[in-house]
């Protein structure tokens, strides 16, 4: 439970929401972290999918509207977020169960396997989404996620991926 709380808290700390207006004061970037264009696209997609897939439906719908997609592409993105969210939570729950057992046995859980599984999920989601969206929708989605990078903060080591 403690590990799941930490993973969830880190995910929420890392991702800035778009509900914060650009006119508000600039936030200081935490020491040892990077933001903006230094964030690899694959990491930005992971943060975006993880954040939006966990939002309540009404807030998720508001965020999807900001991408400015057609109705069909919006429905596709919403469906992809739902599928990603279910798989992400399943992987996280499995890792947390493993971490709990490992902690009780004085061992370390296999965080590398968890990171690999999440990276594979992100890759599959991006590929499926890009194959399903219209050409205009893919462009709008990519530009939107790139514009969201200014609200994201990751560690230096994660930026080196």
For the structure shown, list the relevant keywords:
single chain; 161 residues; globular; 7 helices; two-stranded antiparallel sheet; 2 strands; disordered N terminus; mainly alpha
Integer average pLDDT: 84
**Class computed from helices, strands and strand pairing:** mainly alpha
Q: What low-confidence regions span 5 or more consecutive residues with pLDDT below 50?
A: 1-26
Calculate Rg over CA atoms.
16 Å
The helix tally amounts to 7
Percentage of residues assigned to helices: 55-70%
Strand order of the largest sheet: 1-2
How many domain modules?
Answer: 1
Q: What percentage of the residues does DSSP assign to strands (E)?
A: under 5%
Shape designation: globular
Could you characterize the architecture of this molecule?
The protein has one domain (about 35-160). The longest helix is centred in the middle third of the chain and has 34 residues, at about 70-105. The protein has about 160 residues and is mainly alpha-helical. Helix 2 crosses helix 4 (about 70-105). It is built from seven helices and two strands. The radius of gyration is 16 Å and the shape is globular. The relative contact order is 0.21. A two-stranded antiparallel sheet has the order 1-2.
What would a concise description of this structure say?
This protein has 161 residues and is mainly alpha-helical.
How would the blueprint of this fold be written?
Layout: H1 2-14, E1 33-35, H2 41-53, H3 57-65, H4 71-104, H5 111-132, H6 135-148, E2 153-155, H7 156-159
Antiparallel strand pairs: 1-2
């Amino acid at each position: 439970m403690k590990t799941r709380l930490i993973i969830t808290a880190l995910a929420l700390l890392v991702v800035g929401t778009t509900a914060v207006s650009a006119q508000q004061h600039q936030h200081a970037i935490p020491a040892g972290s990077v933001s903006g264009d230094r964030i690899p696209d694959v990491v930005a997609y992971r943060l975006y999918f993880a954040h939006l897939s966990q939002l309540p439906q009404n807030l998720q719908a508001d965020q999807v509207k900001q991408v400015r997609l057609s109705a069909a592409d919006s429905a596709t993105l919403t469906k992809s977020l739902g599928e990603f969210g279910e798989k992400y939570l399943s992987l996280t729950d499995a890792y947390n169960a493993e971490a709990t057992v490992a902690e009780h046995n004085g061992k370390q859980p296999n965080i590398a396997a968890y990171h690999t599984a999440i990276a594979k999920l992100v890759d599959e989601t991006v590929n499926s989404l890009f194959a399903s969206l219209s050409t205009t929708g893919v462009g709008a989605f990519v530009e939107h996620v790139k514009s969201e990078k200014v609200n994201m903060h990751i560690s230096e080591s994660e930026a080196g991926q």
